[in-house]
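Repro:
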Amino acid sequence: MDKVKKTDAEWRTTLSPEQFNILRNHATERPFTGPHQELGIAGTYVCAGCGLPLFESASKFDAGCGWPSFSEKLDPENVAETVDKTHGMVRTEVHCARCDGHLGHVFDDGPQPTGLRYCINGHSLKLAKK
């Protein structure tokens, strides 16, 4: 996969301030404040930074946590994982494999059959409706 590399100045021309802060600075939006809280809209959720397909609406569920949650990745190659040791915790961060944009974190308290909950910042996503 070809990586998308831009300077901060270039990212700022294509991302909103919220998107830039989350995708490029690893920030987190406050719960229940970001877009894509609703369920039932068919489509593919893509990276707001580069458009790479990340999650399908069929895997979206209401975790009650205040962020869009998904039980599985659309393509394992598109969502990368790293260890996040910030804030006195050890978590698994997920980011876009093409542009390295911060998406959120994955936890092992999701529904079966995967048991995973990809807890994703709404501003890091765009919905391509079907």
